[in-house]
Each structure stands twice: as structure tokens, then as C-alpha cells.
Amino acid sequence: MIRSAVTLNLIETMTQGPWIFWHDLEESLKKVANLGFDGVELFTRSGTDLDANHLKQRLDHYGLQLAAVGTGAGKVLHGLTLTDPDAAIRQKAIDFIAEMISFGAQFDAPAIIGSMQGNVLPSGNREETFKLLAEGLEVLGKHAASLGVTLIYEPLNRYETNLFNTLEAGSGFLERNEFSHVKLLADLFHMNIEEDNLTESIRKSGNHIGHVHFADSNRKPMGFGHTAMGPITEALKEIGYSGYVSAEAFPFPNPDAAAKQTIESFRKFFR
């Protein structure tokens, strides 16, 4: 069964971005549970930022699951990417993501690689950059496999990366490299920018999809833009998707209203 989740950013120094809830773990979990979500997707400073035992206790208290953990802080706070020309920086990026994978694995939750994939630099070589990305995903996929979880790789829109922008491109990359335990993230916001046909892309890449980000065409909560969710829902059901549909969206018009809009949209299309 497809499950609902909502994003929570716990980095106090950040105050804007596509996350629904912010900063207060206890109060946010209480609101998430009261609205009827199944889980929460966390964005944290590092893999050691939270006490895992305490988080488990609080999630159990509210009847919630950890849906996924984001790794973007590695890029946002530390400037780390898997495709940096500097080998020392690439190793730091791998270490950072591996730590996030280990943290998430304690909850059977995957880690997501989005912005930490990096870019082909103006002075860089495209094929060499893809090779560096493949090397990083190979190491991290094996680490995830050793802990019994998957690693989620996210194709981003052209304004955020010049690597892979579509599910088809991401699927081809995974297939060519035969990664262990690496799946794709189907982010509906990015897909609205890059895909010719969202439902066909989902059908064609179905066996590679391991996580879904639930945001409308303008990155507001689903229902505030022009995404046609009905056919997307049917496509996800056709491919047998049974993971999380997680709201990585702007907290518009405010976090509480955004969360309410999200769960109402989720119930409309998935229940």
C-alpha cells in the first residue's frame, strides 16, 4: 500500500525551502500524527545530529515511521558533492552520505541523494563527471545493501543539475552501471519541468522507482498547481509502487495549512 509522508527540516540555521514542517521535532511529530500521515521524511545537519534511540521512542509514541532521510545538508552546509574534481572532497561527500545511510538504516529508511550529486563544471569533462558519480554510487549502494536498505538517487531539473534530469536518463544510468540497491526518486515537481509525459515516464521506469516526492507543478502542496494527479496515481498503482509519497513542498500558505492540504490531496488520490 502506498503510504503518506511529510517533510521536516531540523536545521535551525535554515528558514526557507521545500519542507513543510520546521525545526521543532516534538511539535511537528505531534501535528504529523494528528493529521493522519504514515511517516516523516527528515532533513538533518548530519547522520549524528539526532539521537536514534530518542527518535525511535518519539516516532513509536506517535505511531509514525521514518520515510527517508535527505543528504542535502552535505551540499548546502559543507559544499560537498560526489562529482567534485577534488578527490578529498569527494571522499568527504561519500563519508557524509554513508553516515546518513547508516542513520536511516536504523529505521529501515533510505537516504536520498539530490543536490549532493553535483554538476559538470564549466571547465569539467562530462564523461569523467559521470564516471565520478558512478564510482560514488557504487560505494554507497554497497554500503546501503550491507545494511539492508536502498539508496535513492534523484534526477533534478535542469536548473539544479546538468547531470540527469529525467527518470529515463536516471534509469539508463542505473542499468548501465548495475548498481546494488540504488533506486530513483520520482519528484513530481522536477518531473513537471523535465518530462514530456509524467505517467509514461513512471510506467517506463517503474521498476527503478523507490520514492516519490509529492509536490505540485509550482512546488506548492499538491492541489495548488496544475499537476493532473489522477493519471499519475493510476501509473504508480500499475507499476506496483508501495513506498512513500512524501510532501517535499513549500509550506504554503503556512506549514499547518500546507500539511492539511497535502494529506487531503493524498487521501483524494490514494485512498
UniProtKB/TrEMBL annotation:
What the entry lists under Gene3D superfamilies is as follows: Divalent-metal-dependent TIM barrel enzymes
Recorded hits in Pfam families, A to Z, give:
AP_endonuc_2
Which SUPFAM superfamilies does the record associate with it?
Xylose isomerase-like
- Which InterPro entries does the entry mention? Sugar_Epim/Isomerase (IPR050417), Xyl_isomerase-like_sf (IPR036237), Xyl_isomerase-like_TIM-brl (IPR013022)
Query: Which residue ranges does the record assign to the Xylose isomerase-like TIM barrel domain?
Result: 30-268
Keyword hit for Oxidoreductase: no
The keyword Isomerase is annotated on this UniProt entry: yes
Annotated coiled-coil positions are none
> What keywords does the record list, in alphabetical order?
Isomerase
Q: What is this protein called?
A: TIM barrel protein
Q: Which organism is it from?
A: Algoriphagus aquatilis
